[in-house]
Amino acid sequence: MGTDLFVGLAFALAWLAWLPGVMVAMGWLPAAPGWLLPLGHAMPVAAAVLTEVGAGRTVGESIGWLLSTLDPRRDIRWLVLAAGLPSMLFLLGLGITVLLGRAPLEATGAAAASGALPPLAFTAMLAASGIASELGWRAWLLPRLQARTSALGASATLGVTWGVWHLPTVFSHAGRAVVWEGTAIVAVALPLAIVGTWLFNGSKGSGLAVGMFGGLVAVGLHGTLVHGPVGLTVAALMWLAAGGIVRLHGARDLSPSPRVMPEHGEHVVETGTRRRL
User: Fold this and answer.
1) Domain segments of the chain: what residues?
2) Does residue 264 carry a pLDDT above 60?
């Protein structure tokens, strides 16, 4: 019941924020405030708080518990991985595409420059698409899904849900970008979910690690650098990374540590004897 309520709230709140952008793309509105896009991306954390309040917690307790997952002392190694992996994937994808002759280096450099975000927009996307979004999807929902099934099954459910949730942001763009971005989201939703689960379980429930990873991926996908051949190469690399994680760690946990599950509203790692985080 709690997971259904969370998903319903995450969709309703975000889609309401994104609706004006869709209406602009359809020609029904002349313009929409730019801040509505990051606001919609931040709605999963609001949905998590509202769901917890509905279950009997106070607002302060709900927010405090979510913020506790941002503790950087959980495992610094996973924070480094979360921060470096997106850049490594995008740069590797760019290098492979250029070496194969499918994208001239000058063109991709110009695309990267034109797609670069100003500092304020970068910070807003990192905070909204990364931290706030992942606190809801990964820190709150994923442990509850993993309590029902394997980490791989939970990742598949989360990936499909996350991909569908993003559809209004695709429709808010005009021209050929609609087709490309819709295809890109479908192509990367599942491998991104698997890599995110690997980071979350490996870090024993770090919302900061998955928030950094999600935010930096969102920044990279926003830029024109990953459109066209480079984007396809990056998607292929994400699938290879996800496949390697499944092969190395198995579907049950998708990480070197046991999968994180909730117990009495708190994260625990499944071991022989359950241990609170």
Assistant:
1) 2-276
2) no
